[in-house]
Amino acid sequence: MIILFNKPFNVLSQFTDKANFAKERKTLSHFINIKHVYSAGRLDLDS
After folding, report:
1. Is-contact 3 32, C-beta < 8 A?
2. Distances in Å between the alpha carbon of 11 and those of 1, 4, 44?
3. b/e per residue, 3-37, with b = 16+ CB within 10 A?
4. Which residues pair with 26 in a beta bridge?
């Protein structure tokens, strides 16, 4: 299965944010609620 998703600005291109930041950043998991899906390729946070 292939899922095409236009990543919004200021969202990490991964499903978890393991960095220790004061405020939580949004990740793909905030938008895609499908198990066993992984991102292919990377975009910057502000892309």
Report:
1. yes
2. 23, 15, 9
3. eeeebeeebbbeeeeeeeeeeeeebbeeeeeeeee
4. 11
Based on its alpha-carbon atoms, the radius of gyration of the chain, rounded to whole angstroms, reads 11
Class of domain 8-47: alpha beta
Catalytic residue set: 44
5-38 pLDDT tens trace: 888 888 888 888 877 665 778 889 999 999 888 8
Q: For position 13, what pLDDT does the model report? A: 86
Domain chopping of the chain, boundaries:
8-47
Residue 26, classed as helix, strand or coil, is strand
